[in-house]
Amino acid sequence: MSRDFSPKEFAQNLADQAKDLVPDDLSSEHKENLVETLHTNTLLAAEALVKREHDCYRDDATCEVISQIIAEWTFHKYVDLCRAGIPDEFFQGILQKIGYEIYEYVTEATEKGVDTSIILSNTESLVQKTYKKALLELKKSKKISSKIAERGLFISNIDKMCTEKLEQEAIEERKKKKRAFWGFIEEFEFFVTLYSLLMGVYTFVFYGYDIFIFKAFCILFVVSIISLADKLINGKKS
Predict the structure, then answer these.
(1) What are all long-range contacts of 223-229, with beta carbons under 8 Å and residues at least 24 apart?
(2) pTM of the predicted model, to two decimals?
(3) Residue 208 has pLDDT above 60, yes or no
(4) Segments making up each domain of the chain, as ranges
(5) Residue by residue, what is the 3-state secondary structure of the chain?
(6) Cα 4–14–62 angle (5° rounding)?
(7) Is 38 exposed, middle or buried (0-12, 13-18, 19+ CB in 10 A)?
(8) What span, in angstroms and rounded, lies between the C-alpha atoms of 143 and 145?
């Protein structure tokens, strides 16, 4: 048995984290039930893990990873059920089936020493298979309509979150490139100003007052352009 791993503390910690991740489009009741369901399923899995006799469960990290896998899929599938319009009365049964299948597969694979990346990949396939089977059974027994079943099979919160993450990363990358470009413009602005001033002094010393006046007007023109560029820079940065 793990000596430091506390199922209650771990389950509560994940539940607390989930509160900040629940999508805004869920109702207040669903938000509360999601967190409560995640806490319950995580606690049940964690308590069962520390009672297993295999040596691998003496490692706290192993218990944490398996418990978290169940917690995360509970979270995502609860959201999918909500968005699909599945009646609340079927949530618990579906999520229990998913949690059970995950627990059975992941513990067996872990005890056999299967690589974590393979376990995660196979778990996702297993979850989708179990979820699909549950919805089709509800459809077959006419407990949900074909439309709701199809919507439930199409919706995927985990895919939505991944897509949003990729989009945010792309936005940040574009902002980074834009900042780099306008940073170059600022450096260019400095050197143009310095060059104009030096040319003005050089002209006055070597070519006289009249040419200096002409150069002064040129400098004023350049400064005006720089001022306009500065406004553009500030506008782009904001």
Answers:
(1) 223/193, 223/196, 226/189, 226/192, 226/193, 229/185, 229/189
(2) 0.68
(3) no
(4) 7-155, 168-237
(5) CCCCCCHHHHHHHHHHHHHCCCCCCCCHHHHHHHHHHHHHHHHHHHHHHCCCCCHHHHCHHHHHHHHHHHHHHHHHHHHHHHHHCCCHHHHHHHHHHHHHHHHHHHHHHHHCCCCHHHHHHHHHHHHHHHHHHHHHHHHHCCCCCHHHHHHHHHCCHHHHHHHHHHHHHHHHHHHHHHHHHHHHHHHHHHHHHHHHHHHHHHHHHHHCHHHHHHHHHHHHHHHHHHHHHHHHHHHHHC
(6) 45
(7) buried
(8) 7
Residue indicated by tokens 């902002």: 175
The CA distance from 98 to 218, in Å, is 75
Residue type, 62: T
N-to-C CA span, the chain: 56
| Measured distance CA(52)–CA(103) in Å, rounded | 12
Per the CB < 8 A criterion, the answer to whether 41 and 91 are in contact is no
Indicate the range of 11-15, 37-41, 139-143, 188-192 predicted with least confidence. Answer: 188-192
> Residue 159: which residues within 8 A CB-CB, separation 6 or more?
none
Which residue is listed with tokens 């992941």?
A: 106
Question: Using an 8 Å Cβ cutoff, are 76 and 158 in contact?
Answer: yes
d(CA 157, CA 124): 13
Residue 107 is encoded by which pair of tokens?
Answer: 């513990």
pLDDT digits (tens, 9 = 90+) for 113-151: 999 999 999 999 999 999 999 999 999 999 999 999 998
